[in-house]
Specification:
The protein has 189 residues and is mainly beta. The strands form three sheets. It has a five-stranded mixed β-sheet, with no helix packed on it. The termini are far apart.
């Protein structure tokens, strides 16, 4: 009986626990040694000399007890937040990342929404247009950051730089090569 895949518990084959003075039957003992050899082979070496051949399934964990942690600091690691989101924790405190590290890739024309507050967009297709809905109440401190990565970004000519949607700097077109030399532009309210 090998290791139970659901629980990870190993159970030795039946008939392999001898009594004093009993003649050992080679059939169950050979099955036991074969089984033990298979289980040792299927174990992950602690020294990292062999790679995993299947996904590691970790416990969901929490911010104070992550599913993947460290022996020297068990409150630091990865855990599964609600909604299938990956969480990072340091010393039992949720570690938030700078939003600049997280972006949405856009390959289409897009109209910015109030719910995009603080978002980073990376446009990768040429000739796409980012527009703002003049009727939308974007709210105080609303802003987005746009990266033109391999694409030129166009601002609709009929939109003005009103007080409601100040753009700094927001060129009519941003060539793809400018991404490497200039910071992304930021649209602010």
């Amino acid at each position: 009986m090998p290791r139970n895949p659901s629980t990870g518990v190993y159970s030795k084959p039946a008939g392999t626990t001898p009594s004093v003075g009993q003649v050992i039957d080679p059939v169950p003992w050979n099955a036991l040694t074969t089984d033990l050899g298979n289980e040792i082979t299927n174990s992950l070496p602690r020294d990292g000399s062999a790679p995993m051949v299947a996904p590691i399934k970790a416990a969901s964990g929490t911010v104070s007890a992550p599913g993947v942690g460290f022996a020297s600091n068990p409150q630091t690691g990865l855990y599964l937040k609600g909604g299938g989101l990956l969480g990072f924790t340091q010393n039992g405190v949720d570690a938030s990342f700078d939003p600049a590290l997280v972006y949405t890739e856009r390959t289409d024309n897009y109209t910015a929404l109030a719910s995009d507050k603080g978002a980073y967009f990376r446009f990768t297709a040429a000739g796409k247009t980012l527009t703002f809905d003049d009727s939308a109440d974007l709210g105080k401190d609303w802003h987005i950051t746009v990266l033109a990565d391999g694409a030129s970004m166009l601002r609709r000519a009929d939109q003005t730089r009103s007080t409601a949607q100040r753009l700094s700097p927001f060129p009519t077109a941003m060539p793809s090569s400018s991404c490497a030399r200039e910071p992304p532009f930021i649209a602010k309210n």
